[in-house]
Amino acid sequence: MLNNDIGIIGMGVMGKNLAFNIARNGYSVSVFNRSHNETMKFLFKNSIDLLFPFSDLEKFINSLNKPRCILLMIQSGSPVDKIINILLSYLDSGDLIIDGGNSFYKDTIKRFNFLQKKSIQFLGVGISGGELGALQGPSIMPGGNIESYKLIAPIFKKISAKYDQEDCVKYIGPNGSGHYVKMVHNGIEYSDMQLIAETYSLLKNLVGMNNIDLSYTFKKWNEGELCSYLIEITGNILCKKDTDGNFIIDSILDMASGKGTGAWTANSALKLQIPCSIVTESVFSRYLSVLKANRMIASTILSGPKVSLNSNFNKEIFIEDIRKALYLSKIISYAQGFFLMKKASEHYVWNLQFSDIAKIFRSGCIIRANFLNDIVTAFSENNNLIDLLFTPIFQDIINLYQLSLRTVVTEAINNGISVPVFSNILSYYDAYRTVNSSANLIQAQRDYFGSHTYNRIDQSGSFHTNWLE
C-alpha cells in the first residue's frame, strides 16, 4: 500500500509541471486527471520514480499518507466546487484540500467556511510564475489556517523559487488572503504589461526605433534600475524571428485578452473605495484593444495629429525620459497595489505582513523586479506605512522623475499617440499631491439636487443649503 506525500488533481500545464517539480525534490506524488490518457501521456514523457498515476479517484485518495494533502490544479469557478463535493465522500476529518488555481478570493472564503464545518482543512494558494515557474520554482502565497499551512510547508518551501537562498513562500493569512494577494499581484501585472506596451509604442512610433534597436534598449534597461522579469522578456520578444526571417512581434494581432483577475482587482478596489486607477485603466485598455473592427473604422473617419517631431527634438534625451517615466510609473503602480492590500487587510482582518509579500514577489513570479528590495526595506521598518510614495527610499526618485513623465505624456498627446496608463499615472500623481481639489463643487452639486449635505472647512458638523432660495 502506497503512502504518498501529496496528491495532485489536474494535469494541465501548471499541474503537470508542479507534479514534476515536487517529485524531482524527493516527494512522492499521486496524480489524477479527468482524462486518464492525458495523465499517462505526461508520465510516459516524464518518467520519474516518485510519480504515480491513477485512473480511479478512490484509489488515488487511498494512496496518500494521512492527513491527506490534495492539491487542486483545475479551472477556477464551479469545477472547484464540483470536485470538492466529490472528494468529501472519500476524505476523513483533518484531511487537507489545497486550491492552487486562480480562484476568486470570495469563493475561497466560502469554501474555507464550508469545509471547516465538515472538519476538512482548506488552503487557497496563489501560485505565480507560469509554466516555467511551476517547473523550476514558483512564488507561492498560501491562505488559510496556519496549522493547515504547516502540513504542506516543507513541500512548498522545497519547490518554491529562491531569492538569495530565501524561499519565495510565506504564510499570508486567514481564509481567502492568499488568493487575494495573488489577485492583486495579477492586477499589478496588468499595469506593468500595459506600461511596457505603451513604452514600446512610443519608442517605435515616436522615436522611430526598429525591432533590433527596441530589443537592445529593453535589454540595456534591464541592466539598471528597471531590472525585472517583464522588461527581460520584452527584450527577448522584440528580436525573435520566425522561420521565414520576419519578426514575430509584427505578425501578432493587437488584441490583448485576460483571465479576469485584473477586473477582480479593479472591482475590489471599487468596493473598498480605493483609487486603484492604474489597474482599472489597464483593464479598460485591454477591452479597447479587442474592439479591433471599431478601431479600424475610427482610424478612417476620426482625425487627430500626425507624428511630427520638432527640429529641436533630442531622441537620446527623450529615450531617457521614457525610461525614467516607466520606472516612476512602476513605483506608483506597485504602491497602489500594496495600498489596496493594506485596506483589504484591515477590512477582512487578515493582518497581512507586507515585507513578506514583497519578499515572495522577488523571484519566481511574473512581477519580480529589483526595486522590490526597496519595498521590503520600507515595510520591514514599518508594516503600517500610509503609502509607499511617502517613504524616503522613493521620494527623491519620484520628485525627480515626475518631470520626465510630464514630458513623455505631453509629447504623446501632441503627436496623437495613446498612452492611457502613463496619462492616468500623471493625473493620479497630481491629484494625490493637491491639497484643495475641485471635489467641493461636486459635493455642492450633490447637496443641490439630492440634499446629500456637506462638511465645511470652518465649522464642524453636516450642512445643507436651500440652493433655490
Strand content: 5-15%
What is the CATH superfamily label of the largest domain? N-(1-d-carboxylethyl)-l-norvaline Dehydrogenase, domain 2
- CATH topology term of the largest domain: N-(1-d-carboxylethyl)-l-norvaline Dehydrogenase, domain 2
According to CATH, what is the class of the largest domain?
Answer: Mainly Alpha
Rounded to the nearest angstrom, the radius of gyration is 25 Å
Mean pLDDT: 95
Q: Which shape, going by the Cα principal axes?
A: globular
SSE series:
EHEHEHEHEHEHEHEEHHHHHHHHHHHHEE
Number of domains: 2
CATH-scheme architecture of the largest domain: Orthogonal Bundle
Helical residues, percent: 55-70%
Major beta-sheet overview: 7 strands, mixed
The largest sheet has its strands arranged as 3-2-1-4-5-6-7
C-alpha termini separation: 87 Å
Q: Structural class, judged by helices and strands?
A: alpha/beta
Poorly predicted runs are: none
Could you give the count of β-strands? 11
Number of helical runs? 19
